[in-house]
């Protein structure tokens, strides 16, 4: 990195004094400890109306200095409003916002790093935006929530499984087709209703329905109703007891098989785990799922299905699942 320092007003006054006396540029440069080209460039760029003035030269320099800095994208009101709406109202991540703008409005592109800086600098903060007035950063996906400790013991009951995930078809493993589903439940208050979530592995399309409780019979009926009119090739749930009646689901869906992951390895059905994390923004823990209407659950599901994803090239699960194109910006 260079150590060049811009000319000061005092140096500019010395230059004016030198050229008024007819001193050569080389001599002026030597006495200032500058390069001759610096003095020559100063006179060429900052001489106005054929007369060099230190005050005018300083003003020219200040204007150029001010205009050479890149303009902050989020100071553009249209871009700011667009980012704020998608982040705070639609719960899009900064990277989702950035890349979807690139697809639909490239002339307004703003990098996700710029959006993150805006969030952490408080540009999107407002009163009552988060508990404890922590600001907009609390709306980011990972906001300090605790993780399960490595080696934590699985305490849920064991069920008889039909197939191991290692036997799942290659097409399902490679996400090569529509119809390979991952399944789980999202709980609220203990002993109350729960959500049954189903994610298509290829499109990441979500089906979310409410079950009366985390009982195998209730989960069975919801799964059958949710999938009976959808393309189904395989189903990969976790090993929770709520899926104990998976054989009944297989019979109702024309023999479509269940494939169970290894114990303590939730990443083997990571699509569903990730989506359940998204749902927690709308259905917090310890909140009774019974209190949420079916219309609200459908509304949240649609929001998630119409949110662009990096793994889909910033298309939405809805677009990939139904082979349609939406206009979201």
Automatic annotation (TrEMBL):
It comes from Treponema saccharophilum DSM 2985. InterPro entries: Integrase_cat-core, IS30-like_HTH, RNaseH-like_sf, RNaseH_sf, Transposase-Integrase, Transposase_IS30-like, Transposase_IS30_CS. GO terms for cellular component: cytosol. Residues 136-150 have a biased composition (Basic residues). Residues 132-155 are annotated as: Disordered. Residues 165-325 form the Integrase catalytic domain. GO terms for biological process: DNA integration; DNA transposition. GO terms for molecular function: DNA binding; transposase activity. Keywords: DNA recombination, DNA-binding, Transposition. This is Integrase catalytic region. It comes from the Bacteria. Coiled coil: none annotated. Belongs to the transposase IS30 family.
């Amino acid at each position: 990195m260079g150590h060049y320092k811009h000319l000061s007003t005092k140096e500019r006054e010395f230059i004016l004094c030198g050229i008024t006396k007819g001193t050569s540029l080389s001599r002026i440069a030597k006495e200032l400890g500058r390069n001759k080209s610096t003095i020559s460039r100063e006179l060429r760029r900052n001489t106005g109306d054929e007369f060099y003035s230190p005050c005018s030269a300083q003003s020219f320099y200040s204007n150029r200095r001010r205009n050479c800095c890149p303009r902050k994208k989020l100071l553009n009101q249209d871009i700011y409003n667009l980012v704020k709406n998608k982040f705070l109202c639609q719960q899009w991540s900064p990277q989702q916002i950035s890349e979807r703008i690139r697809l639909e409005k490239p002339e307004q592109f703003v990098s996700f790093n710029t959006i993150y800086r805006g969030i952490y600098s408080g540009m999107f903060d407002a009163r009552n935006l988060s508990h404890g007035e922590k600001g907009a950063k609390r709306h980011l996906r990972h906001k300090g929530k605790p993780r399960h400790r490595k080696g934590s013991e699985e305490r849920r009951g064991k069920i008889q499984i039909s197939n191991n995930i290692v036997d799942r078809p290659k097409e399902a493993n490679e996400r090569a087709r529509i119809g390979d589903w991952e399944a789980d439940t999202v709980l609220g208050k203990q002993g109350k209703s729960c959500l049954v979530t189903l994610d298509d592995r290829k499109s990441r399309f979500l089906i979310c329905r409410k079950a009366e409780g985390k009982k195998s019979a209730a989960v069975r009926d919801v799964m059958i109703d949710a999938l009976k009119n959808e393309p189904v090739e395989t189903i990969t749930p976790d090993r929770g007891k709520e899926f104990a009646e998976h054989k009944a689901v297989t019979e109702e869906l024309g023999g479509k098989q269940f494939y169970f992951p290894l114990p303590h390895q939730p990443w083997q059905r990571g699509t569903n785990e990730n989506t359940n994390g998204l749902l927690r923004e709308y259905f917090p823990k310890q909140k009774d799922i019974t209190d949420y209407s079916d219309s609200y659950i459908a509304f949240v599901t649609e929001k998630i299905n119409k949110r662009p994803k990096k793994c889909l090239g910033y298309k939405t699960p809805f677009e990939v699942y139904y082979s349609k194109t939406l206009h979201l910006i």
